[in-house]
Design a protein that fits this description.
The chain is mostly helical. Helix content is 73%, strand content 0%. It is globular. The two termini are 23 Å apart.
Length: 418
């Protein structure tokens, strides 16, 4: 599949030009569409249970099948797919810079307006739909990416690896320190009470649900964003920027042999880290691992999750090039990727409707295996809806609003008739 358009190639004479090709970046759109599944799978677990990430097992769903499903989601999806979205954010940032340079428009004011629009969407999303919003983080980190936009590909890569190493090393050091101090008794009863109170708030009323999201953000979400997701997302921004500036991703995407080599190198490393992480964090029974083991697993996962993310990228790019199934897979994923922001927010709207007082208030009442089935059903529906929408519209509905806010003019709503 064509990775680059001639109009999207680099205009910086000091940077190697990406491999020329014709057509839209279908593979990048397909990667975004694929990432939506992973994001939905992880976020659905947070919607479905207030025990998600608390550190104790939900007593209502403690059967072996429940543990197995949670382990599988943690192993395959957790901490991997937001990294993929972050990589693509950095890649798209570089494309937008090139587009502004070709059109003669000032890039910085335009991108700052885009970040402001993303910030407004994220704030509304976090308070009204999902406390685990990532858009606010992207908007704030985007300012740093803007400040570092002049970095050469090698410098951006080195800085990204330094950020990843710093975060993983910090959690590894914390694990070592915890292992050498007297163990602290986990307040299990208090954690159960906290999770049950949160579930009651989400079921009570819309206003109670909004207030509970505020408490969730204040009591724990910000910590994860600052000390885990934020630095890792910024690192992947930089890798995405370097991938476009160097033209490396565009070249490798056209070479199946090199994609296979990346799979062989990255999937085993990332898989081993994910195996340790899932087993320590979730486990396969109600027995909890010691705190230093859990922290060590997080450190290992932070160090190896980017390998698994890159392995997923190589695997999907390789699949897109094989037989009749490749084009069909691309045709299914691309429209969803082109309106990824609309689909991301729609996922949260459905989650809030199903699991909170906005609708059915089923939080804490749906088994993990049913949540997974619901994820696949919703994702399949999104693929169908996205394909029909993009057949007649130029942008997804939220993408259209964000583009209007960025350009300060109304873009085309419907696609011109052929």
């Amino acid at each position: 599949m064509a990775m680059m358009t001639s109009a999207e190639s680099s205009t910086n004479p000091s940077s190697p030009a990406p491999a020329p090709a014709v057509g839209r970046e279908h593979a990048i759109d397909a990667l975004r569409g694929f990432a939506l599944l992973g994001i939905l799978m992880v976020n659905a677990g947070s919607f479905a249970s207030t025990y998600f990430g608390v550190g104790v097992v939900d007593p209502a769903f403690s059967r072996p099948v429940d543990h197995a499903v949670r382990w599988w989601v943690s192993f395959i999806f957790e901490t991997k797919f937001y990294l993929l979205f972050s990589l693509l954010f950095g890649y798209s940032f570089a494309l937008q810079m090139d587009s502004a340079a070709r059109s003669g428009n000032a890039f910085v004011p335009r991108f700052l307006r885009r970040l402001l629009g993303l910030l407004l969407l994220g704030l509304a999303h976090a308070w009204l739909l999902f406390a685990g919003d990532i858009l606010v983080t992207y908007a704030l980190l985007g300012v740093l990416l803007l400040a570092w936009r002049g970095l050469k590909p090698m410098a951006a890569t080195v800085l990204a690896l330094a950020l990843l190493g710093m975060v993983a090393g910090g959690w590894g050091l914390l694990a070592w320190l915890v292992a050498h101090v007297p163990p602290i008794e986990v307040p299990v009863a208090e954690l159960h009470a906290k999770a049950q109170q949160a579930a009651q708030a989400y079921r009570a009323s819309a206003l109670d649900a909004i207030a509970q999201r505020g408490r969730d953000m204040a009591e724990g979400v910000w910590f994860v964003l600052v000390f885990v997701q934020g630095p890792c997302a910024l690192a992947m921004f930089l890798l995405g920027l370097a991938a476009h500036r160097s033209g490396y991703l565009a070249r490798v995407a056209q070479q199946p042999a090199r994609l296979r080599r990346w799979m062989v190198r990255c999937l085993p490393v990332g898989g081993a880290g994910a195996l340790f992480y899932a087993t320590a964090q979730v486990g396969t029974s109600s027995v909890q691992q010691p705190e230093h083991v859990v922290l060590a697993a997080l450190a290992v996962d932070l160090a190896t999750a980017p390998f698994l993310t890159v392995g997923y990228v190589a695997l999907l790019l390789w699949l897109l090039q094989h037989g009749t199934g490749g084009p069909r897979l691309g045709a299914a994923l691309e429209p969803a990727g082109r309106m990824a922001l609309s689909n991301y927010l729609l996922q949260s709207l459905v989650g809030a409707t199903v699991f909170t007082a906005y609708g059915f208030a089923l939080v804490g009442q749906v088994a993990p295996w049913l949540v997974v089935l619901g994820v696949f059903a919703l994702y399949g529906a999104q693929l169908v809806w996205s394909r029909r929408w993009m057949a007649t519209h130029a942008y997804g509905p939220v993408e259209w609003w964000l583009r209007a806010f960025t350009l300060w003019q109304w873009p085309a709503w419907r696609r011109p008739a052929p």
